[in-house]
């Protein structure tokens, strides 16, 4: 079993006084190093950590991105929190908008994804490490955000050799239940818009949504458990630089699982960073995970991303559209 712990020191998002930012597209995705060769130096540090890591320890960097504005976000802004929660969140839409099932991006949401792409181009010119592997939620607002940021027309400035592929994971989705905007579409419908080889659904991905129910909402603790399963998947792979495009509450669960301080992420943005340490024990597992309850926050702004660094005996660094380090340790 594994235990992931955030490690601070590289990104602004891990600063004790940082509790969120209304600006989703932070310069250098929150990297504290302002030098001209900051990303080159960052890569050198990650390579050095991995080369000196004990057996079973890996470092990875995760780029975690929150989707752009969806129609459900627009509905919340239109009606206000009280009226939205009382009535409209339980419906499929109104006379002007449709936000369920499986809310899509608004025009603003699409422009936020395009802004994230431009931010990646800017950092690419400065030497940032382009993700080696991509994961995304199966909900359309996340898929559309990933496509607007990394997919679509081939971007040779980001992918000079070949275009990216992305793996769609059920566990990357938003908190599910009660609200129909969080109900996903059937696999066959999604595949019509998101076909292979670019879009690869995980093995055993079911035709119909196996999780959403109308009468029960998933708990924060279970979201955190799902986030841990995603980390487990990532740590089984050899790639170091990873991108995850998902949702606000999923990212909160990931932060909680890694014991990173809560960090508010608006919709639409680019990476910020933090460090994590994970311990794998063959016989017993002692969890020091800190759980927290966080209130819902405004979804205005750009697509938010976290940069994560993972450290440990299976150390890896994860990078969001916010960033952090993760340390994974295996006891033998």
TrEMBL record:
It comes from the Eukaryota. One of its GO terms (molecular function) is phosphatase activity. SMART domains: PGAM. Coiled coil: none annotated. CDD domains: HP_PGM_like. InterPro entries: His_Pase_superF_clade-1, His_PPase_superfam, PGM_Phosphatase. One of its GO terms (cellular component) is cytoplasm. PANTHER family: BROAD-SPECIFICITY PHOSPHATASE YOR283W-RELATED (PTHR48100), HISTIDINE PHOSPHATASE FAMILY PROTEIN-RELATED (PTHR48100:SF1). This is Phosphoglycerate mutase-like protein.
